[in-house]
Every structure is written in C-alpha cells, then in structure tokens.
C-alpha cells in the first residue's frame, strides 16, 4: 500500500511502471491516458474434488465455481490496487493460472495490468464504480477510443464439464469407421454454451453494448482426458458518442531485400 500510495500522481517520488511495450505505451498516451503503475492481484486456491458419473455428460459445478471464484478474487485485488493509485482503468490485463509444486490441487491465479488515468476528466469508471479493465493490446485500445467506444470491464464465464465415456460395445463398433460420437459433440457444445452465456450475463450487468476480443479456451488442467474447462473471456464496451469515426485500414507492403 505504501509503494502504491507513493506512485499516485502529485507525489514528489511518483514514477510509473508498465508492462506495455514501447509502441503500446505511446498509443495509450496518444489515446489520452497516462500510465500510473503496474497492478496485480493473486489468489492461491485449493481446487476441490468432485466425482462425475462415468457414463453421463454433466457439469462439475464444484470445480466450475472454484475456477471462477479464484479468478474473480485475483481480478478484484488488481482493481483494488488500481483504486489506491486513483486510476480510471487498467489496460493490457493478463489473467494466468500457474499450478504450484505445493500440491497437485493448488493453483495460483494471477491478474496483471497497467493502471491508467485519463488526461481529461470523464466518466471512465463502470456502473459498479470500479476502474474499467481491458485485455486489449495498446494498439486495439487506441483504435477503440478513437472510434468512439470505451471499455467497461473484462467479462468471463467458466464451465468445468465431464464428458461421458463410450460404452465398450459402442467403442468397438466405431473401430475403422467415420462416425460422429454424439455424446462427445453434445457435451462440448453444452459446455461452451454455458461458458458463453455466463460471460454474456456479466456484460449485461455492466450495461454493455457488446463484447470484443472474445477468446473461448479449452483448458484440461489436471483433471484427466474426460474432464475439461471451457473458459470464455472478453472486453465489454460501451459507446462514447453517437457518431463513430472509424478509420479506414491502409494497406502497407514491407520492402524486403532479396
């Protein structure tokens, strides 16, 4: 807390830290925001155990809740650090998971980004009175602001799902044939749909117009071949103004010595 307080604008010892690249840093400044400092949140979480029926497609709700809650703790603590700096938002957020050697069921959930403050006062914080968060690159952030949109926050959805095993005679009957495995298709479709719908529900609670930069990831972690996590994440956005000036892309051909 002392380190963050000393980094607040106006302090005699204030300096910023940032994990943005040089190009990203300059584009964030061009967009009208100045970096205040790197902020992070961490949660070392014990992921519980849950049995799934061998022959049934089903969500493992205990694991789904654990994976979501751990990420939420890391994000909330990162936002709290940004609040201490007096930030309007956090850009370039990375949300990572690292399984530790302390135990096979222990994982560290880490959220890291660069807290920024707008040069001109404005309503940049979201409807929860928290700094906005965004995992967009500095280039994408600049383009978003220039086009008349603003980030509200990173939104996410998680679903840990157990995929049913095939019965012995069914598996034997599929040998050497091109054939769809219906229970596998249905399981993966349902799991993705649950993750996406939960992410969309978070965006709706922020009163967002849409979500950009969505990633839909399949993360096996350490649960074995028939259990996987589908995790969706993106940046919820809102319009800044009614008229959106969208720059036309320019074709650039690099000249390479032959």
UniProtKB/TrEMBL annotation:
UniProt cross-references to InterPro entries, sorted A to Z: UPF0145_dom_sf, UPF0145_YbjQ-like
Record-linked Pfam families: YbjQ_1
Record-given protein name: Heavy metal-binding domain-containing protein
Organism annotation: Nocardia terpenica
Superkingdom field: Bacteria
Annotated family: Belongs to the UPF0145 family.
């Amino acid at each position: 807390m002392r380190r963050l307080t000393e980094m607040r604008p106006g302090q005699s010892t204030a300096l910023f830290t940032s994990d943005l690249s040089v190009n990203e840093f300059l584009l964030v400044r061009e967009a009208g925001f100045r970096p205040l400092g790197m902020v992070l949140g961490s949660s070392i979480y014990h992921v519980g155990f849950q049995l799934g029926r061998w022959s049934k497609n089903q969500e493992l709700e205990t694991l789904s809740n654990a994976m979501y809650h751990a990420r939420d703790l890391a994000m909330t603590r990162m936002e709290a650090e940004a609040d201490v700096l007096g930030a309007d938002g956090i850009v370039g957020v990375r949300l990572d998971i690292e399984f530790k050697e302390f135990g096979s069921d222990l994982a560290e959930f880490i959220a890291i980004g660069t807290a920024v403050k707008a040069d001109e006062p404005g309503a940049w914080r979201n409807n929860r009175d928290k700094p906005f968060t965004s995992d967009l690159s500095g280039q994408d952030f600049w383009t978003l602001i220039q086009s008349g949109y603003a980030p509200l926050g990173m939104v996410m959805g998680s679903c840990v799902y157990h995929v049913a095993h095939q019965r012995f005679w069914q598996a034997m009957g599929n040998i050497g044939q091109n054939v769809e495995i219906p229970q596998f298709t249905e399981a993966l479709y349902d799991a993705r749909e649950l993750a996406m719908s939960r992410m969309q529900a978070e965006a709706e609670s922020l009163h967002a117009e849409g979500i950009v930069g969505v990633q839909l990831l399949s993360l096996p972690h350490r649960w074995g071949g028939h259990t996987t996590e589908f995790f969706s994440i993106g940046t919820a956005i809102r319009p800044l103004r009614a008229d959106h000036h969208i720059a036309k892309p320019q074709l650039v051909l690099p000249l390479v010595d032959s």
